[in-house]
Automatic annotation (TrEMBL), chain A:
The chain crosses the membrane at residues 48-65, 113-137, 144-167, 173-192, 227-245, 281-302. Belongs to the binding-protein-dependent transport system permease family. It comes from Actinacidiphila acidipaludis. It holds the Pfam family OppC_N. It is found in: Cell membrane. This is ABC transporter permease. PANTHER family: ABC TRANSPORTER PERMEASE PROTEIN, OLIGOPEPTIDE TRANSPORT SYSTEM PERMEASE PROTEIN APPC. It is a multi-pass membrane protein. The keyword Oxidoreductase does not apply. Its main location: membrane. The keyword Transmembrane helix applies. Keywords: Cell membrane, Membrane, Transmembrane, Transmembrane helix, Transport. Residues 109-299 form the ABC transmembrane type-1 domain.
From TrEMBL, chain B:
SUPFAM superfamilies: P-loop containing nucleoside triphosphate hydrolases. PANTHER family: DIPEPTIDE TRANSPORT ATP-BINDING PROTEIN DPPD (PTHR43297:SF2), OLIGOPEPTIDE TRANSPORT ATP-BINDING PROTEIN APPD (PTHR43297). Pfam families: ABC_tran, oligo_HPY. Keywords: ATP-binding, Cell membrane, Membrane, Nucleotide-binding, Transport. One of its GO terms (molecular function) is ATP binding. Residues 21-272 form the ABC transporter domain. This is ABC transporter ATP-binding protein. It comes from the Bacteria.
From TrEMBL, chain C:
SUPFAM superfamilies: P-loop containing nucleoside triphosphate hydrolases. It comes from Actinacidiphila acidipaludis. This is Dipeptide ABC transporter ATP-binding protein. Pfam families: ABC_tran, oligo_HPY. Belongs to the ABC transporter superfamily. InterPro entries: AAA+_ATPase (IPR003593), ABC_transp_ATP-bind (IPR050319), ABC_transporter-like_ATP-bd (IPR003439), ABC_transporter-like_CS (IPR017871), Oligopep_ABC_C (IPR013563), P-loop_NTPase (IPR027417).
Amino acid sequence: MPELTDPKPLTEATVAGVAVPAAPADPQREKARSLAGDAWRDLRRKPMFYISGLLILFLIVIAIWPSAIASGNPLACDLAKSQMGPTGGHPFGFDTQGCDVYTRTVYGARDSVAVGILTTLGATVLGSLLGGLAGFFGGIWDSLISMVSNIFFGIPILLGGVVFLSVVKGGSVATVTLFMVLLGWPQIARIARGAVITAKQQDYVQAARALGAGNTRMLLRHILPNALAPIIVVSTIALGTYISLEATLSFLGVGLKPPAVSWGIDISQASNQIRNAPHMLLWPAGALSITVLAFIMLGDAVRDALDPKLR
Amino acid sequence: MTVISEGATAAPQAAQTAPLLEVRDLHVEFHTRDGVAKAVNGVNYSVQAGETLAVLGESGSGKSVTAQAIMGILDMPPGRIPQGQILFQGQDMLAMSGEQRRKIRGRKIAMIFQDALSSLNPVLSVGYQLGEMFRVHQGLSRKAAKAKAIELMDRVRIPAAAERVNDYPHQFSGGMRQRIMIAMALALEPDLIIADEPTTALDVTVQAQVMDLLAELQREYNMGLILITHDLGVVADVADKIAVMYAGRIVETAPVHQIYAAPAHPYTKGLLQSIPRLDRKGQELYAIKGLPPNLLHIPSGCAFNPRCPMAQDICRTEVPVLHTAGPGRGSACHFWKETLGE
Amino acid sequence: MSDSTLEPILSVRNLVKHFPLTQGILFKKQIGAVKAVDGISFDLYPGETLGIVGESGCGKSTVAKLLMNLEQATSGEVFYKGQDITRLSGRALKAVRRNIQMVFQDPYTSLNPRMTVGDIIGEPFDIHPEVAPKGDRRKRVQELLDVVGLNPEYLNRYPHQFSGGQRQRIGIARGLALNPEVIICDEPVSALDVSVQAQVVNLMEKLQDEFGLSYIFIAHDLSIVRHISDRVGVMYLGKMAEIGTDAEIYDHPTHPYTQALLSAVPVPDPEAREHRERIILTGDVPSPANPPSGCRFRTRCWKAQERCSQEVPLLAVPSVFAGQDTPAAHESACHFAAEKDVVHAA
């Protein structure tokens, strides 16, 4: 039998002086770390989280209190200034109606963000409720809910928007939100159904059942908390797309309608004049893009933080 | 089990030539969110042609990471090889270009993984995947490659190979899939095979079939085999020599017969005492106390010291070298004589 | 331990579980069934450990789920102290569950990652508040942690802060919380490292003595099953092939499958490898959706004859050994049962 390895002397240097005692240290000192706590710790290390977070915070502030940074009135217009470029006190210039583009862009945030957040809330609640039911109970519930959600999936958004919003009339934040919730919930429901089914199969749910836990306890204590992460991620990303969907609908004239102030409406009006007055398009469209991007970035960062596989 | 005796007689004569593969002072570390995990901390071992080296260790011992470093399939980053050499037929693979290494991988060194199902592409037939080796490396035609694939499947004793060559991986059982993996590893008649827990996912009756097949093919092709496992039973069945790893180091090396008869390291000794025996009902099992080490915080001195019944002050401060504990034997324990003598 | 004067605490009779195979999405049509468990019977006596071994797909984990009522049995009975628990639901089932608990295989998925250890071990008390008054619970949980060898201060930690072996101890503590009489262990150590397995096995033996528990210990590792079990049942394709005391099964097996299974286990002793006889089975386990007729093992059996394909062998003491005072006279479902020691080197 040959020599296995040459037993070269190993110097201490090879251990590079790691002298810390083994893992579980003093239980008193080490604070309990929940998964959410870990995720939060992870998020705070990501520049993307800060950038998107600050942007979103800023957006929400100006949505609530636009007069903080724009002193004018978005509906106070002077036709004489139609399509004028930037001047003193009006850095973004004027639109066709002679309204101040800066003021309108700032005020536009309110309805855009409101529609986005309300739609997300509505779609998430409805979607996770129905998706959760389908996933948890399965069988006929599952078939029924899946079928209904597939029907809603099949509706072309624009066609549906034209029909719905012309029937319902209005063009207010409420009606646009209602329509978008109706179209948006199946996406969340699918994710929720999958997440609930995955969580349901975990051994800890079986363990709870073996202990004699009822359905309510299993859903609230074991399944829901574990199914929540993917739903949160998808909702955050969807929020961005809802905002851009509202703009699209408004652009097509079936979403919000003047006198409402919205980026979509402004983009719509500006698109005819893109040659003469590109600044009219640039600002609302830029604000929209940055907003959508911010939410998608936040969703990405949250997903990375919540995914234990990336640890 | 004639393979063993043959391997054993062939080995001394091979010892005069250079080893097929030699790992020298290999270090591997991973940069994680919580710090640097030192997965491999100075590993030395060598394999001759026709010889089976079993690398034994628990999860986190660095046995698989070492193998991945040899194959060049380590994820870098987060992995990093700060020092060490991997000599294959006398050449340091760590100093080679990517192109040179690719030529060795698959052709000269092949690897068999634990999970055959995820190592095979689910949307391609096994015949196609086997044939691909020949088409890519030897430029064979599609038809010739398929014929070769059938021949290989015959070799690893898959029944009705000609009919099954167009089947997809999921249509085979676990044992058959592992045979296909072995066939794939053998395709280009490599000099060295690294088998990482090749039978862990299989049932015992199938495990026996696959291990026998592997041993037989190894003898036939006179290949070196590095068998990575945590199963002391499998090791006793097929290995010529053993390297026991703990916390990224080799703590004991020995010819297989000697290590079971008289281990020279307390960890090996504890492991051997802690497994129940099939052929007799024992008393309470000996249990090694404590937990496997956290690679982020490897204990100072001997990494095993917090769990070792023999630990003295010196074990907490001084890293034991691999002492020669007999012909072909090494033990990285300050008290190897006492351990052996007990 | 299996003193016949004792009443069994758990009696399983002709237990069957078929999982229907269906086709179609909206209008489901049954096209067959996976016969995961196909008529097995055994008894568990107070204070003993019954090991159940078999290869993957033999139905041993389904048996565990059926005993726990986590799956609904297709037919057959499970009597707990004379009461058939497969037909129970609601409050009656909940009451029985207090007495029969389970330890799961995978310590990484069997603990809810979003609950603290204190909440996990305390959950049984939330579900069965009559077991421990509210003020007492924290103390009880700490006692349980101490019993399974964990630091009682770990109460507020989360599962991912523990190693596999420690998590399995948490799972065991949860199983113990309600003072059950029977614990069903489904591969409780197979996911653990070798050096940690012994710790957990020893703990389980200690707890058995301390609390007078009965175990059903399901595993594929034959060595560990021998170590911990008083009696052992060998399953193959949904049926019990052979059952007896550990010495009867390991030292005097009479069923060819048991013999093949035992001979295939690698023994950690290189001296034995030249001397031991290996029975290498050909082929794979057939699909439980379409098992062979007659004896299920016949397609891989070297003793198989015409009779084996026509007649299902019953689990009984083989007629050749009937009435004899030999360890080979234990229940074995083979037409051609014959003793053969495969474990000990010749």
